[in-house]
Specification:
- It is found in: Cell membrane.
- The chain is α/β, with parallel strands linked by helices.
- The protein has 12 helices and 12 strands.
- It has helices at about 20-35, 75-85, 85-105, 120-125, 130-140, 155-160, 160-175, 190-195, 205-210, 215-230, 240-250, 265-280, and strands spanning about 1-5, 10, 40-50, 55-65, 70, 115-120, 145-150, 175-180, 200, 235, 255, 265.
- Strands 3-4-6-7-8-9-10-11 form an 8-stranded mixed β-barrel, surrounded by 4 helices.
- Strand 10, helix 11 (about 240-250) and strand 11 form a beta-alpha-beta unit.
- Bound molecules: ligand C2E and magnesium ion (3 copies).
- The site of one magnesium ion has 4 residues, from loops.
Length: about 290
């Protein structure tokens, strides 16, 4: 038996099909429905300036409000979204929703310096990516300078020569760029020089054992120094303890993000946080 899947692909569905492939196909169909029914929502995790202690950025983290299973995190559906290519329409929707939310905050005088959006390989590989981003910015009225794109080393390395061209086009638009999960991929340091990236984001796996494992401590310290020597800013993700925070402060890390400071939150809760901060530091406005 064959079943028409939409687009041009025909999928075969047999009882012999292994359970994993079956589950994936089922998840894929559910993801397609989730797009139609608009079941995706954005959470935002604050990024704090270690110097001033202010909220300077928000990372957009996708959630799926499943009608039966409740709130589902990306680790459960991102592999299938990537594999099926559904990450492209999903990612476009995330980008648009993030820009719209940014404009809403701006209109209330609450917008932080930046909103960071994760971009997958499948999105980055598309010919029309630059166009989609510039159109989304134009249509929503969100300022390119307030948008940060998080690209992993894998995303950057998967695209060969096209990568530098794409990154340059994004920089020319005024978009801010960060390497996510830095240190976990297999990019070479030579690429750091070549890629017009603004920020390194130290992966949580190094931050986790920072205070117990001297190797992780050395890697984190070296990454901060490397970033600064290359004129990049450095952010650490997954900060969970005061000891980790103190280490990062002592080593001059620019920004931090993690459960210690705040978990990813829905937009309404972020609005409250931003209001509270505005009251605390009324003069704090955004540098160009
Ligand atoms: P990521 O971009 O590296 O995001 C950081 C992940 O670490 C998030 O998980 C966040 O909730 C979690 N996290 C933050 N602080 C802490 C902490 O202190 N401790 C611990 N244990 N975890 C912390 P989340 O939201 O489950 O997202 C997982 C991954 O899914 C993200 O990793 C990113 O690669 C991907 N992802 C999320 N949203 C999107 C999206 O809109 N598009 C794409 N392409 N990928 C996304
Ligand atoms: Mg990220
Ligand atoms: Mg990350
Ligand atoms: Mg990570």
């Amino acid at each position: 038996r064959s079943k028409r899947q939409g687009g041009h692909s025909v999928q075969f569905y047999t009882p012999e099909m292994n359970a994993e492939a079956h589950d994936r196909l089922q998840l894929e169909n559910e993801l397609r429905k989730a797009l139609e029914r608009d079941e995706f929502l954005l959470y935002f995790q604050p990024q704090w300036d270690l110097g001033g202690g202010t909220l300077v950025g928000l990372e957009v983290l996708l959630r799926w409000q499943h009608p039966v299973h409740g709130l589902i995190g990306p680790d459960r559906f991102m592999p299938t979204a990537e594999h099926s290519g559904l990450i492209v329409p999903i990612g476009n929707r995330v980008l648009r929703a993030a820009c719209e939310q940014g404009v809403a905050w701006r209109e209330q005088g609450l917008l932080p310096q930046r909103i960071a959006v994760n971009i997958s390989s499948r999105q980055f590989q598309r010919q029309d990516m630059i166009e989609v981003i510039s159109r989304t910015l134009a249509e929503t009225g969100f300022d390119a300078g307030r948008l940060e794109l998080e690209l992993t080393e894998t995303v950057l390395m998967d695209n060969g020569d096209a990568t530098v061209t794409m990154l340059r086009a994004l920089k020319a638009m005024g978009v801010h760029l960060a390497i996510d999960d830095f240190g976990t991929g297999y990019s070479s340091l030579a690429y750091l020089k070549l890629f017009p990236i603004d920020r390194l984001k130290i992966d949580r796996s190094f931050v986790m054992d920072l205070t117990h494992d001297s190797d992780d401590a050395a890697i984190v310290a070296a990454t901060i120094a490397l970033g600064h020597n290359l004129n990049r800013t450095v952010i650490a993700e997954g900060v969970e303890t005061p000891a980790q925070l103190e280490f990062l402060r002592q080593h001059g890390c620019d920004l931090v993000q993690g459960y210690l400071l705040s978990r990813p939150l829905p937009a309404e809760e972020i609005t409250e946080l931003l209001r509270a901060q505005r009251v605390a530091t009324p003069e704090a406005d955004v540098p160009a």
